[in-house]
Amino acid sequence: MHMTRVIVRAEVKAALKPRPRECHKGDFGNVGILGGAPGMAGAALLAGRAALWLGAGRVYVGLLDDRLGVDATTPELMLAAPDRVLGLAPPGCLVAGPGLGQSAGARGWLEAALATPLPLLLDADALNLIAADSGLADRLRSRTGPALLTPHPGEAGRLIGRATAAVQADRGAALADLVDRYRCGVLLKGADSLIGFPGREGWRNVTGNPGMAAPGMGDVLAGMIAALVGQGLDMERAAVIGTWLHGAAGDRAVRAGCGPLGLTAGEVARAARDLINELIYSGL
Fold it and tell me: Which of the two ends of the chain, N or C, has the fewest CB atoms closer than 10 A to its terminal CB?
């Protein structure tokens, strides 16, 4: 796992194909976002918007906060009760964690998400709940469907019982420990994000910049990866391509004058939409 391969633009471009002329939204998968407890709905909405802008056919945002009926900025998102996203039709991907919180109710919804056969991306409070609950960790390890954990160094430390500084001192070892302990894919975020899957060579991403140390960036990344899974990529390929696109979109936004100071997650998501279309359709 200490051997890593750098993600390069040419490989990303080669993996992305134009859409056929004859197609409809059902061809591009369903994404479900589970999260958005009171006071944290924005995290789930950011993930949903990113999935929509990366081309997912339908995006459902299952909010624990039931006071919102529509996202006025992006009404194309379908806001729903949490149980609606747990019944997501394949092909698709379920994201659990953005703004989820750590209440007893949140734990119950996470347990239900772990029981689904859908590809599952776990972020934010989903990771904190798993780190604190051996029963949830066991359910993750016993899943048959693909799963991806997307911790930042602090969350990674909680998942493997190490201090954040220890994770950062040997990120390769931390990644290997996470993959081995939870028996699934792991994206260890940070400068030069690392990606590992059981029995596979690891990946290292070198796109991105310090302006991306800002609220909501992880939510956007989660939505982007889920959109790629919904459109037919396996979890590993989606994690690799999504991570590269996320960082490269941040670099693009900075070049356009949006940062680095004050760069927002929403700006990165929109830059990612521009970038993926450029990669697929330039030169056609």
Answer: C
